[in-house]
């Protein structure tokens, strides 16, 4: 009998001692980080609302209780009973019964009403029918991504359970080493923006944090081939943690499965969905550009299948010697500051990912309150000494001024924006400005993946700023459903009609003008001197967006909107830069994030910024707060303890 099997036997005995004698436990298994308890008496478990909480506390495990299949009501009868328990106002759209696990997945427009106060309705459902309810939200805006991910995971439930059981046994394996040290190896995004990737290792465990590409630099990928990374074999990684879905952090995650990785990816639920959307589009764009994609869609599906979603604040075992906790990063939907607690109080490391410290229209500001952090790995995109962004209110006024001036001269406003985050922020500004009469009402055309990304935002309102979440809960107040928003879905003909039509606003991907439908809009509207191209986000070195910002007016449009190979376009439209809408903290925000950290870290590694930015921020933090700071290069290793 293996050490894990002995451990499960011991846990089963401890559970049986804790629960009433008339409750039978038939099996105990690890599924990922959770301990799953099977019972013939799910109704008795549900009858005591505190029983599971008491067990989780005494065993120090995340516990899920599932009914033994022999105790279940037939699905048809159970569905009638479940619908009688749930209030009609909850808007249940489907019930899906899974007899192998005893779970019923309930999709509803208002999940909170299915859950009930402190889970009271969920317990009532189990008391009535024995099935364990799992609740998901019906997207207010139909999302093919959410629908496809849910359908795929439903079809793969059996294989996914096998994956989770294997991962669970790996997490709870016996520790083999008595050594105590922690290392961080930088595989990318040091003294540069993009290709984020780090290895966090202990004598027991190796964890990859992020695995992205570099905007504007084809072929520059993280140093995955080194011994600390995949050089020892992808299967030697214990876990992958994804901070958020932007491609400079997520683009190459599916590649790991091509190289033989078969372990878990830990991220938030919305990040999982956005990762699927963005990586599939990444493959599509590569194919359109005539490049050979580094992996296939099958590997994207593998990444989704292996994802274990975690919620903010949940402390989760991901290895025998590592606990992981996600906290809101304020950057994009589902973005997370990742906190690693290593050993039994040995060491604590936090990776900021990308952060925004102040509240925005979309998100509450980044969390920086942790039990302990000895080392912080901090993004430095705007870490330069002069990188102070315009106040958000002033930025919004500047954007409205450009829109009004362009409208008055009969032109159109074209805004290149990231599909995820920036576009939704701009949509909220425009919706309010039109509603309050600050700018004229006009169509706002959304091109590329923006509408689909917006639909995913509305699926997960609990990850949004408090007041916005409340508005989305009421369909008549959902700002993303405003009449002026039009999804471009008919391609080139519809774009031509918009270009030939009246004044309007176009928000289009890609945000750094590196391919995508924005190239078509430049061809259609770029020759119009009455129109304006408005930059609202960071333009990385080497991207076409940065070149246009720097004054280029002859731009290549190969293959886009009817352009042939070698075609160029002369831009006659004006260009404007409106700072303040970035999803990144500026210099002051980064300093405030560190200054107000509780507790303040002993060491800070400044990464994810150009050379000037990381060195400026590193120097300032050292001088102002008397902490050890570093501006590492790629392929450096830091050893702690």
TrEMBL record:
Annotated binding of Zn(2+) 1, by residue: 244, 246, 331, 354
Region (Metallo-beta-lactamase N-terminus): 181-385
Cofactor note: Binds 2 Zn(2+) ions, which are required for nuclease activity.
Domain K Homology: from-to ranges: 98-168
Family matches, as InterPro entries: aCPSF1, Beta_Casp, KH_dom, KH_dom-like_a/b, KH_dom_type_2, KH_sf_prok-type, MBL, Metallo-B-lactamas
Superkingdom classification of source: Archaea
Region annotated KHa, chain positions: 5-72
Gene3D superfamilies in alphabetical order: 3.30.300.20, 3.30.300.230, 3.40.50.10890, Ribonuclease Z/Hydroxyacylglutathione hydrolase-like
Keyword Metal-binding part of the UniProt annotation: yes
Gene Ontology BP term (one): DNA-templated transcription termination
Region (KHb): 73-140
Xref: CDD domains: KH-II_CPSF_arch_rpt1, KH-II_CPSF_arch_rpt2, TTHA0252-CPSF-like_MBL-fold
GO MF: DNA binding; RNA binding; RNA endonuclease activity; RNA exonuclease activity; zinc ion binding
Start and end residues of each Beta-Casp domain: 423-548
Entry similarity comment: Belongs to the metallo-beta-lactamase superfamily. RNA-metabolizing metallo-beta-lactamase-like family. FttA subfamily.
Function recorded in the entry: Terminates transcription on the whole genome. Termination is linked to FttA-mediated RNA cleavage and does not require NTP hydrolysis. Cleaves endonucleolytically at the RNA exit channel of RNA polymerase (RNAP); the 5'-3' exonuclease activity of this protein degrades the nascent RNA released from RNAP.
Subunit (UniProt): Homodimer. Interacts with RNA polymerase (RNAP), interacts with the Spt4-Spt5 complex.
The protein's name in its UniProt record: Transcription termination factor FttA
Lineage: Archaea, Methanobacteriati, Methanobacteriota, Stenosarchaea group, Halobacteria
